[in-house]
């Protein structure tokens, strides 16, 4: 789970970090708050936190506080494609497939997080569906053509059960 403070605090004396810590304190058995990438066996049935805010307490999840806006980047052993302002669907797809190719070639200790989601605007009106309609269809075609391909984590708008199964199966097949 990726957590970040999206706005400025108003009417509170408690920091975002303290507020978040109070939420997870009662559910600590459900969360993995280590500051490194855990194995699947360590996190099965739990939530792994990507902390996209600065924190004084340690550990409070994997430190992703340097997450740049609208870009592709690498930190530690995590590679992310998070280009969400989409002017050209094919350019978004090119960035998306570049990270799919990276996911195939990295060791299992390396985590790839690939955002299929995005928004384009026509006459200043945001349109999420136009991006997801293209990218989601292209994901299906890509995975069908590359069935023995690790995809990493794919974050998408309007996912359906069939697409999720395709991604799960691609990541689960013996290589």
How would you sum up this structure in a few lines?
By secondary structure, this protein is an alpha/beta fold. It is 35% helix and 19% strand. The chain folds into two domains: 2-63, no CATH class; 71-172, Phosphatidylinositol (PI) phosphodiesterase (TIM Barrel, Alpha-Beta Barrel), CATH 3.20.20.190.
Helix and strand topology:
Blueprint: E1 2-3, H1 16-25, E2 31-32, H2 40-43, E3 47-48, E4 50-51, E5 62-63, E6 71-75, E7 78-82, H3 89-105, E8 111-115, E9 120-122, E10 125-127, H4 128-145, E11 153-155, H5 161-172
Parallel strand pairs: 1-4, 2-3, 4-5, 7-8, 8-11
Antiparallel strand pairs: 6-7, 9-10
Helix pairs in contact: 4-5
Protein described:
It is a single chain. This protein is α/β, with parallel strands linked by helices. It folds into two domains: 2-63, no CATH class; 71-172, TIM Barrel (Alpha-Beta Barrel). It contains five helices and eleven strands. The strands form four sheets. The chain has a four-stranded mixed β-sheet, with helices on one face. A three-stranded parallel β-sheet has the order 1-4-5, with no helix packed on it. β7, α3 (89-105) and β8 form a beta-alpha-beta unit. α4 (128-145) runs parallel beside α5.
């Amino acid at each position: 789970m990726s957590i970040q403070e999206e706005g400025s605090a108003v009417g509170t004396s408690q920091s975002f970090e303290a507020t978040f810590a109070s939420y997870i304190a009662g559910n600590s058995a459900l969360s993995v708050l280590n500051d490194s990438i855990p194995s699947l066996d360590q996190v099965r049935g739990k939530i792994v936190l990507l902390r996209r805010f600065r924190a004084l307490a340690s550990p409070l999840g994997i430190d992703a506080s340097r997450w740049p806006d609208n870009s592709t980047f690498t930190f530690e052993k995590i590679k992310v494609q998070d280009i969400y302002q989409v002017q050209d669907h094919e350019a978004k797809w090119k960035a998306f497939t570049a990270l799919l190719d990276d996911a195939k070639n990295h060791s299992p200790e390396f985590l790839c997080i690939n955002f299929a989601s995005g928004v384009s605007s026509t006459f200043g009106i945001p349109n999420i569906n136009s991006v997801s309609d293209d990218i989601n269809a292209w994901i299906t075609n890509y995975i069908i053509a590359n069935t023995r391909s690790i995809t990493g984590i794919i974050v998408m708008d309007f996912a359906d059960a069939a697409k999720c199964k395709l991604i799960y199966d691609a990541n689960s097949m013996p290589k």
